[in-house]
Amino acid sequence: MSHPRTPVSGNGHRRQTVGVVSRTVFAREALVRAISAEAAFRAVDLGSGQDAVARAHAADPDLVLIDLRPADAVPLSEALLEAIPGTRPVAVHRGAEPELLLRFAEAGFVGFVSTDCAYRDLLQDLRGVLTQDSNCPPQLAGAIIRSLRRKSG
């Protein structure tokens, strides 16, 4: 993905663009401020719903952090991936239910961040998603294995 508009950090490296989607305005604004304070990142507010696709198209994010109910997050991830194929959706989830994580993975999410994680863990997870293919919690790995067994058996 090419990002000619993305600012360069003080050390000369391109800052990774993180889009933030959340229904809660103050949470979205706080995440944008906090993530943007990190030299490696530039965060943009993408709104709270389907308007996020148009905003993301303009911002061309490397990663989109999505904090919505699963019923809203899944179609948004699919729409983002259709509009911006190279972006990486990351789900903020409030539990580690394996079937829910599997549903997110099937919708194209490549990372998962728990609402229980500390801020430093969030940053580590975002870096991991940007430098690796995905961030897969153990519960998701187990759900994937069980799902494959059901399909093959």
Could you describe the 3D structure shown?
- The protein is an alpha/beta fold.
- The protein is 47% helix and 18% strand.
- The chain is built from six helices and five strands.
- It has a five-stranded parallel sheet with strand order 2-1-3-4-5, sandwiched between helices.
- Strand 3, helix 3 and strand 4 (88-93) form a beta-alpha-beta unit.
- The longest helix is centred in the C-terminal third of the chain and has 15 residues, at 138-152.
- It is globular and about 50 Å long.
- Mean pLDDT is 84; it is low at 1-11.
* Major sheet: 5 strands, parallel
Total strands? 5
H-E order: EHEHEHEHEHH
Approximate shape: globular
> Overall pLDDT, averaged?
84
Helix tally equals: 6
* Low-pLDDT regions: 1-11
How would you write the strand order of the largest sheet? 2-1-3-4-5
Instruction: Indicate the proportion of strand residues.
Output: 15-25%
Q: What does the radius of gyration come to? A: 15 Å
Q: Alpha-carbon distance between the termini?
A: 39 Å
Task: List the defining traits of the structure above.
153 residues; alpha/beta; 5-stranded parallel sheet; globular
List the helices and strands and how they pair.
Layout: E1 16-22, H1 25-36, E2 41-45, H2 51-59, E3 63-67, H3 70-83, E4 88-93, H4 98-106, E5 111-114, H5 119-131, H6 138-152
Parallel strand pairs: 1-2, 1-3, 3-4, 4-5
Helix pairs in contact: 2-3, 4-6
Short note summarizing the structure:
This protein is an alpha/beta fold and 153 residues long. It is built from six helices and five strands, in the order E-H-E-H-E-H-E-H-E-H-H.
